[in-house]
């Protein structure tokens, strides 16, 4: 409604606030100390893990089986998370993707990769990036819906210098971004709030 060239809001005009989406802080420039790549991935069956979170961190982990740690050679693994927004539908979801390359083809690897392919998983990714304390950062993928093996190959290579081994990709679809795992003291997952054993063999 107009009056004397100005706008007077009527009772039909509403100003909507969505406090859950309010921004909370800005971001400056970090030091040039970031590094890429991942050191290791840790697998656990989705139904054998109970997780709790607070403030964007995984604050509690209780497992009924051991984490299976896969160490990676430098330059053989990556973690990517894609944001999938839709303005038309008013939705957003997140697609975490983990790619790892494992050297050498063996019967033991063949058997375990078959199990990975059959399972819905939670995957923890230990990156080369470190916190100010010097400890590596670990991210939890598949907290809500799990991760699944979406593509993979085993190949001998052609030339003597070619890779002989496995190339595996795991993907998920999550309602929110992956969370960082709360800090540890000496070794990953030694947080006293966690009930975790790690099989690193």
Give a verbal description of the structure.
The protein is mostly beta strands and 201 residues long. Helix content is 6%, strand content 45%. The protein has one domain. It has 1 helix and 14 strands; from the N terminus they run ββββββββαββββββ. The strands form 3 sheets. Strands 4-5-13-10-9-3-6-14 form an 8-stranded mixed sheet, with no helix packed on it. The protein has a 4-stranded antiparallel sheet with strand order 7-8-12-11, with helices on one face. The protein has a two-stranded antiparallel ribbon with strand order 1-2. A hairpin with a 5-residue loop joins strand 9 and strand 10. About 2% of the residues have low confidence.
Total number of strands: 14
**How big a fraction of the residues is strand?**
over 45%
Helix/strand/pairing category: mainly beta
How many structural domains are formed by the residues? 1
Major pleated sheet? 8 strands, mixed
Distance between the termini: 73 Å
Radius of gyration: 22 Å
Q: How many helices does DSSP assign?
A: 1
Shape: globular
Order of helices and strands: EEEEEEEEHEEEEEE
Contiguous uncertain segments of 5+ residues:
13-17
- Numbering strands along the chain, what is their spatial order in the largest sheet? 4-5-13-10-9-3-6-14
Mean of all residue-level pLDDT scores: 90
In percent, how helical is the residue content?
under 10%
């Amino acid at each position: 409604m107009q009056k004397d060239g100005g706008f007077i809001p009527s009772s039909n005009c509403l100003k909507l606030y969505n406090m859950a989406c309010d921004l909370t802080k800005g971001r400056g420039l970090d030091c040039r100390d970031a590094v890429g790549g991942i050191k290791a991935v840790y697998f656990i069956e989705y139904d054998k893990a109970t997780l709790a979170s607070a403030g964007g961190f995984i604050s509690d982990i209780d497992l009924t089986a051991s984490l299976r740690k896969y160490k990676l050679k430098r330059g053989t693994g990556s973690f990517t998370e894609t944001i999938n927004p839709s303005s038309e539908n008013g939705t957003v979801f997140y697609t975490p993707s983990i790619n790892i390359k494992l050297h050498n083809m063996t019967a033991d690897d063949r058997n375990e990769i078959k199990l990975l392919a059959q399972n819905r998983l939670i995957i923890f990714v230990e990156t080369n990036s470190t916190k100010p304390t010097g400890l590596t950062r670990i991210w939890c993928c598949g907290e809500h819906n799990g991760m699944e093996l979406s593509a993979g190959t085993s190949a001998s290579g052609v030339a003597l210098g070619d890779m002989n081994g496995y190339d595996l990709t795991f993907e998920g679809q999550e309602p929110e971004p992956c969370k960082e795992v709360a800090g540890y003291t000496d070794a990953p997952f030694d947080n006293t709030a966690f009930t975790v054993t790690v099989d690193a063999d």
